[in-house]
Design brief:
Fumarase C, Chain A, domain 2, Ribonucleotide Reductase Protein R1, domain 1, 3 domains, two-stranded antiparallel sheet, 21 helices, 6 strands, elongated, binds arginine
Length: 464
């Protein structure tokens, strides 16, 4: 039933209902709408609109609906109500008659939807945080399992310098940690209650907005009614959280797709996260990773979409803003799915450590070491760089690795090169030189991993 009988004599057209109704997607806020309504009923007692008894009946009825929603017993698709707010009100009116019709006193769907959606975002950001922590856990375990593995590090997708595989894992760990703090920041800003701001100008009932905020678990009430009902920054920030997080996942996915390729042959993915080809029996495709990469498109699109929707909207509420939900709901869902499948990918991943080691040895990844060796002999770095480059050319011409080049060839390039140069060039020597904070020596990485595992324990403890 429409919420505005008095002013209207004609019915809404079927097409208008299609463009206007949001129940088909905003039913996901049913729990939040019920929670907000219970808090509002208490506010109305404080304002002298409802008696304690009336409030108790409303709360009991709302709790019955809540239980049915939680038990999946409510068929929202069978309802012709416009949105979740009118759905809940119609339910109350059906059950309680005139008492149900009292609840909306002093409240507007504008402050109601802003409150519900903030609560919904808060709940889902907490869920995403848990998902990220699980992925971080899987990354650190993966690093632990492959503690000795060496891979080539790349710039411009060309082999640049060797690194420990654990160092690669910890790099994505840093991104995930930032993603977690981004969620915390987002929640800190959205943690204000719009309830009691009415349609746009505030409410004329003394409901005690501070108390309402407290009852709903917000840190404080929003301070300006016009802003409170028209602000959707919190949805944009949630979409940015999802977009940045997905961007990180897509980079990890891309690295792993490449490592898994026939060309690189660095790792195998488990059957659980790959698919075969309907035509080519030999194929095992990294579909899960490709979708982690591919789903970025729609998530970034949702962020862009809402930015464009919000641009230039006059104060205060406009129906355009109803477009904030479907994108956000989808973004949260896709990000959640990708974080979960990321865990499965990492758990089932097996690294071909011989192949990665061999690849790290090839491609003259130790040319910088030769330059550094010359620097240690007091050769200016620019000159050293030049000589090392010539040594690479000489080695390529002979089909040798740098460390296989005879001493005479090296000495022909610079007289200061002695036999001890060969101590500088092996893989482990190259790696162990990078022993300072943030580098990839075995010691440094082991220490970093230890600290990250400790940090993970603290994170988990803070969530439970
Ligand atoms: N379904 C609406 C939304 O999501 C609720 C607010 C409706 N407010 C209004 N003035 N029509 O935005």
């Amino acid at each position: 039933m429409a919420l505005w009988g008095g002013r209207f004599s004609g019915d809404a057209s079927a097409m208008f209902k299609q463009v206007n109704d949001s129940l088909p997607f905003d039913y996901v806020m049913a729990i939040e709408d019920i929670t907000g309504s219970i808090a509002w009923s208490k506010g109305l007692v404080r304002a002298g609109v409802l008696t304690e008894q009336e409030q108790a009946s409303l709360e009991q009825c709302l709790n019955t609906l809540k239980q049915d929603v939680e038990a999946n017993k409510v068929d929202f698709s069978a309802s012709t109500e416009e949105d979740i707010h009118s759905f809940v009100e119609a339910y109350l009116t059906d059950a309680l008659g005139d008492l149900g019709r009292k609840l909306h006193t002093g409240r507007s769907r504008n402050d109601q939807v802003a409150t519900d959606f903030r609560l919904w975002c808060k709940r889902h950001l907490a869920g995403l945080k848990l998902d990220i922590v699980n992925l971080l856990d899987a990354l650190l375990s993966c690093a632990n399992r492959h503690e000795q593995a060496i891979i080539p590090g790349y710039t411009h997708l060309q082999r640049a310098q060797p690194v420990y595989f654990a160092h690669w894992c910890l790099a994505y760990g840093e991104m995930l940690k930032r993603d977690i703090t981004r969620i915390d920041d987002c929640v800190r800003r959205l943690n204000q209650s719009p309830l009691g701001c009415g349609a746009l100008a505030g409410t004329s009932f003394d409901v005690d907005r501070e108390k309402l905020a407290e009852e709903l678990g917000f840190a404080s009430p929003c301070l300006n009614s016009l802003d409170a009902v028209s602000d959707r920054d919190f949805v944009l920030e949630l979409l940015f959280v999802c977009s940045t997080g997905m961007m990180h996942l897509s980079r990890m996915a891309e690295d792993l797709i490449f490592y898994n390729s026939g060309e690189a042959g660095f790792l195998q993915l488990s059957d659980a996260v790959t698919s075969g080809s309907s035509l080519m029996p030999q194929k095992k495709n990294p579909d899960a990773l490709e979708l982690m990469r591919g789903k970025c498109g729609r998530v970034f699109g949702h962020l862009q979409g809402l930015l464009v929707t919000m641009k230039g909207l006059p104060l205060a509420y406009n129906k355009d803003m109803q477009e904030d939900k479907e994108g956000a709901i989808d973004a949260v869902n896709q990000y959640h799915i990708c974080l979960c499948i990321g865990v499965e990918v990492l758990e089932g991943l097996s690294l071909n450590q011989e192949a990665t080691r061999k690849a790290a040895q090839q491609g003259y990844a130790n040319a910088t070491e030769l330059a550094d060796y010359l620097v240690a002999q007091n050769v200016p770095f620019r000159t050293a760089h030049d000589i090392a480059g010539q040594a690479v050319v000489a080695a390529i011409a002979k089909g040798l690795a740098l460390e296989e080049l005879p001493i005479e060839d090296l000495q022909a390039l610079h007289a200061s090169i002695q036999e001890d140069v060969y101590e500088w060039l092996p893989l482990e020597a190259v790696l162990d030189k990078r022993k300072y904070l943030g580098g990839t020596s075995h010691d440094t990485v082991t220490k970093a991993l230890y600290l990250e595992l400790e940090h993970l324990d603290q994170l988990k403890a803070s969530l439970s």
